[in-house]
Amino acid sequence: MPVDPDGPSRSRGDYSGPAADYSLTAACEVRGRRLPSRVLFGPHATNSSPDRALGPVEHDRARAAGGAGVIVTEVASVTADDRPYEYAPLAASCSADWAAVAAACAPATVLAGLGHAGSQSSVRGVLRAPSSVPDPATRVVPRPLSPAEIDELVGAFATAARAAVDAGCAGVEIAAGQYSLLRQFRSGLTTPTPDDRVLLAVLEAVRAAVPGAWVGLRLGVDELAPWAGITLASSWGTVDRVADLVDHVVPVRGSAMSVASTRPDAHTAPGFLADACRAVRDVVAGRCAVVLAGSVVDPADAQAALDSGVADLVEMTRAQLADPDLVATVRAGRAPRPCVLTNQRCRVRDVRNPTIGCTVEPSVGEHGPRAGNASLLAPGDSNAASSAPRGRRSDGADFLASSARSDALPAPEVLVAGAGPAGMEAARTLALGGRAVRVVERADEPGGLLRTIATLPGRHRFARLADWYVDELARLGVSMQVGRVVDGPADVVATGGRDSDRSGLTPLAVLRGAPLDGPVVIDDPLGDGTAVALAEHLAPTHQVTLVTADQVAGKQVPDLVGANTRLQRAGVERVLEHRVVERHADHVVVADVVTGTRRTVPGTLVDAGPRRPGHPASGRLIGDALAPRTVAEAIREGRRAAAEILRAG
Amino acid sequence: MLGEPIRLGSRVVRNRIVFPAHLTNAAVRNCPSAEHAAYYAARAAGGAGLVIVEEQAIDRPYEKAVLGTDPAVVPGYRAITDAVHAHGALVLAQVGHNGAQSSSLYSRTPVEAPSAIPDPMFREMPVALDDAGIARIVAGFATVARHCVAGGFDGVEIQGSQASVVRQFLSPLTNHRDDRYADGVVFLREVLTAVRAELGDRVLGVRLQGDEGLDGGLTAADAARVATRIADLVDVVNTAVGVATATLPLIEPPMGVPAGYAEPVPSAVRAALVGTGIPVIGVGRYTTPEQARRALEVGACDLVGVVRGQIADPSFATRALAGDRVRRCIGCNQECIAAVGLNRRLGCVVNPDAGREAVPVAVSRSRRRVLVVGGGPAGLAAAAEAAERGHDVHLVERSDRLGGQLAIAAAAPERRELAFAVADLAHRCRDAGVRMWLRHVSSNGRCGDPFCSPAEHVIVATGARPDPPSGTVDVSDVLTGAASPSGRVLVVDDLGGPAAPSVAEVLAQRGAHVRLMTSGMVAAEGLGPLLERERWRRRAAALGIELLTDRVLLGGGVLHHPTGALEPLDADVVVHAGPRVPDEIEGPGTRVGDVLAPRDAAAAIREGTDAARAIR
Question: Taking residues B84-101, what's their average pLDDT?
Fold first, then answer.
């Protein structure tokens, strides 16, 4: 698996903004359908409907309004016995919501995601699967489907497709990639007799049930398990057979043994499916459209894929979570808010059932009955062709327009202390709301911790986020003063947190160049990814030990398996289920958290424990200044603080 | 003594058996549900004197919390209190705020706590509460109390123990303040005063933490001191040990921990409150009437909290007072604590109706000849339920003992109480007149008795059999004694549950040099949610069991899959815990339990019960 493809990006030179004349964002005709753009918003778990229907329509409507060409709704189970996660939609409960999404998203093409997770499910009863092979995650032994049950399943796909089209969807996308019974039937990992007969039967039945509708297919073409699983080479026959049955195919990868590989984080280079996609496109030879998926988050990459014949359409799901107006923004010749590819908030297949969110775009998941607060305002004006900062949306951003109405009496300048993500988000939102904004930053450049974090493996895209903010503030006429501190009260205090008062180096000190010779011991009481990333960062040059009280390293990291695998491959020693009990200049003493057994670990201590809140200044404290947490909280509180100021007028 | 009424402030409880607060995950859209009402009513109908409904939250700590500050909860409260009162029990609602023992996952707002100290489990830096924040939380307690009054509760209990901002104020580990709230009792008194103003003469209780299980944390003496300082404000004091997010196994210990392990706490509080007339509730894995009775007799407490015992047997109190046998909780923690911890609905291995009390069970009007094939938990549950519903039931079991895999598993250390489940099912079968045929197999729907007429309904519960890779010994053979591996033994765990760790321990006790290996990232991982893993790890360390992770057998050696490193097998014997295969038989019949798909005892007992209820 490629690690850190472009390495830490400290400079601006590696990235140029998109161009307004991209074919990616132009209206087009594909297989007789008029699409507003070649950008697809793919199916993803949202945990937003306890009724097993779809979540609030705003989630899809915002992407359609922002220019998405094709929207595939969250995969709905075609039979009631399938429940891959608690709030997984059930096709029989989705008709009203399919109708609402289809109506709300015109002129985008709306397809209903349909599937069955087979052994990758989580029901309390009996799992149904091609064979009795248990899922590696749950280890639950399923019951093999009988021929009669397979017939019923095929019929259920057809029934669900009919219902979706009757509800107003342009068609369906059949799930045969990750979390799919149809993939399991094709894989030697999950059945002793792998073949594509069930998949073909489903596609034929669906075709017959919805003649004239669009039928798409998300197809696993590489399970990354060549000893038994589906491989690219073993997929060509299937691709050839399905090409005549479907309108589009999205090649994807991964199996139950590698769930994180399907929508991986930034440790995997974006565009990793490009070669597979091009090969699929060669096989189908124009018989259906081919969609490039796989961490495509930069418009330039998506355009390059179209230009080089890799695909006809590009799936940019996470990119459109990060910026709902991605297509419109690109059309306007600007860079969309960048997805940072951490999966921290959007990967919601978790027993806690978090509603979908986004590290960089706080409005994601803020709609509907499960949202915790009054809606955050929508992201802003980014698809307005004019550069005049004005509100334009009605869904939660009314105050932008109303504040604009008060132009007769200019509102006073808003002073924001700190140019990290919290302060810059606040400043941008205020500027979009029509306010004059001045940001004062103590350091010599804006960005706060973003640029420091970006030097860590898998975090390089945070530098792009910092660059984006700087560009946006400049575009919006925000006054930025660096190398200064605010004297007197600020309207928004986003001055960040402080180092802890514990002994030992901090990860930030190490990243900023504190001398560090010989072996290193990282004490990680948080498991939030900082220590894991620092260990990876230091492993090439130091002998690194990571100490955690948890049973794994990086307990809170979305891709736990990937993180622990990378650490072990890098030669990092993980001292699990231990706690640092003594700190010395050149070694620490650790104790087993259960047995209390002690041992000595040589090395210089780096303390990856919690930072402290910032100075208890007066004013509206946000982000780490309030309580050191993650970038997501910083941005959310920046947005919220700005909204409050704008509402107050 | 258990049956003696006792006064709580203005109210009288009919007996000494309490159903204390615990999470059920039965909330629907953060409101009380019909499941809640049926669940609590079942324990009231079963004779409990006092029911304390789970936490009504001021904050938003976990997904299925009931958010008591929302006025929408009141109709649901009314449904609960009417249902409980109909059976003569008193009902309180627990009210709580989780402080730092929470995350912003659901609220999307910062977590708040006495001091900026992250919780060991949630690890989210909280914002230290200022005076306005404290006033807001105190008002939140009052708001919930007001809703509880409107909903018909007899009073409330303030959560000040396992997951609570009150405990965080009281504990020196989490309160580093230098203002007047440095004394956490100041905060608690403000809460109690505000809540008392809403309650009038209704019952006000508080649940106090008596052993955080953490260095420098609260102790029984602290609980006693706090109790004396709030005695003027409360009618009853409940007790607890353990912090939900740091020392959870102390709160809900597994079957290896004896009843009464927490008794020092209520004892100390009771001693401190002598003369005040305030009764004290004790808890601590009291799962049988004898244990509950003994706790009163030794003077540890005035009322006894029985949670898991009443989950397992809703009629625990009635049976205890009548001297009847109860269906025993086996302390397995699988469907209650583990399930709730995994955000699922509370259930119970031995009581398949727990958590689904609101689902109606149709009455049987027929008497059918029923043959149950297989005497494991699925078959025993099917036979007992069918016979109790009036059917004529025969059960055939191929072996010479009942209980199937469950009986075998009970042979392992600290798993002995699994056998209680088998014994209690067998008792039910006998009491209901099931005819048992051990060492028999069925043929054509007939039981072993040549004079028995063919069954009208057959339930097949033949279980599953091991399918170990060639050259390896199955774990069940070690537990039954069929195999006695010695020397250097590698136990390969492809299940992740208790089987492999149990067998590793058995073998180490027998003197083998044991390594436990898993393909996963964590050894004995499945013991974690059951809250057994710490105890097991301690015993395993004492026995010198080595733990290997991220490894699989490959050819004649071992592959460390993250790195691709090949290691020698280095074992005389390989013992294997892996998926079993259904033990199918010819002929028609409803399949239940492992023969349908090899899973666990909860599925077996639930499916056996349901199959019996489906007989028309």
Answer: 98
Rounded to whole angstroms, the Cα distance separating A111 from B55 reads 42
Rounded Cα distance between A183 and A116, Å, is 10
| Nearest CB to A50 within list B29, B342, B550 | B29
Please indicate whether the domains covering A28-331 and A515-607 agree at the CATH topology level. no
Q: What is the dihedral of CA B550, B551, B552, B556, to 10 degrees?
A: 170
Smallest Cβ distance to A594: which of B104, B519, B538? B538
How far apart, in Å, are the Cα atoms of A72 and each of A39, A114, A217?
11, 10, 11
Among chain A residues, the shortest Cα distance to B581 is held by: A132
Side-chain-side CA neighbours of residue B562 (13 Å): 20
pLDDT digits (tens, 9 = 90+) for A492-531: 999 999 999 888 899 999 999 999 999 999 999 999 999 9
Q: Which residue has the tokens 């400079």?
A: A11
Domain topology for B369-464+581-613: Rossmann fold (3.40.50)
Rounded Cα distance, B609 and B616, in Å: 14
CATH fold for domain B473-577: FAD/NAD(P)-binding domain (3.50.50)
Angle at CA of residue A344, ends A340 and A347, nearest 5°: 110
pLDDT of residue B388 exceeding 80, the answer is yes
**C-alpha dihedral (B308, B312, B313, B314), degrees to nearest 10:** 70
Distance from CA of A509 to the nearest CA of B (A): 20
User: What gap in Å lies between CA B162 and CA B508, rounded to an integer?
Assistant: 36
Half-sphere exposure (Cβ direction) of A262: Cα atoms closer than 13 Å: 25
| CATH superfamily of the A398-498+613-648 domain | NAD(P)-binding Rossmann-like Domain (3.40.50.720)
**pLDDT score at A408:** 55
Give the CATH superfamily of A515-607.
FAD/NAD(P)-binding domain (3.50.50.60)
**Of B344, B579, B596, which has the smallest distance from its Cβ to A126's Cβ?**
B596
A301 touches B: beta carbon within 8 Å: no
Domain B6-341 = CATH 3.40.109.10: no
Question: Which chain B positions have a beta carbon within 8 Å of A551's beta carbon?
Answer: 521-522, 525, 528
DSSP A505: B
pLDDT, residue A3, reads 36
CB atoms within 10 A of CB A147: 7
How far apart CA B417 and CA B480 sit, in angstroms, is 17
Determine how many CB atoms are found less than 10 A away from the CB of residue A376: 22
Distances (CA, A) of B320 to A131, B1, B328: 47, 11, 12
DSSP B28: B
A552:B537 CB<8 A: no
Could B106 and A372 be called an inter-chain contact, meaning their C-beta atoms sit closer than 8 Å? Answer: yes
What residue spans define the domains of chain A? Answer: 28-331, 398-498+613-648, 515-607
Whether B529 has its CB under 8 Å from any CB of chain A: the answer is: no
Q: Which residues of B touch A528 (CB under 8 A)?
A: 123
DSSP result, A577-597: TEEEEEE-SSEEEEEETTT--
Angstrom distance (rounded) from CA B19 to CA A555:
35
The reported pLDDT for the residue numbered A1 is 35
Query: B123 and A636 in contact by Cβ < 8 A?
Result: no
Residue partners of B223: CB distance under 8 A and separation at least 6: B208, B209, B210, B239, B265, B268, B269
List chain A residues with pLDDT less than 50.
1-14, 370-375, 381-406
According to CATH, the topology of domain A28-331 is TIM Barrel (3.20.20)
Cα dihedral sign for B199, B202, B206, B207? Answer: negative
Handedness of CA A76, A77, A79, A80 (dihedral sign): negative
Q: What is the ipTM of this complex?
A: 0.95
Please tell me if residue B214 touches chain A, with a CB cutoff of 8 Å. Answer: no
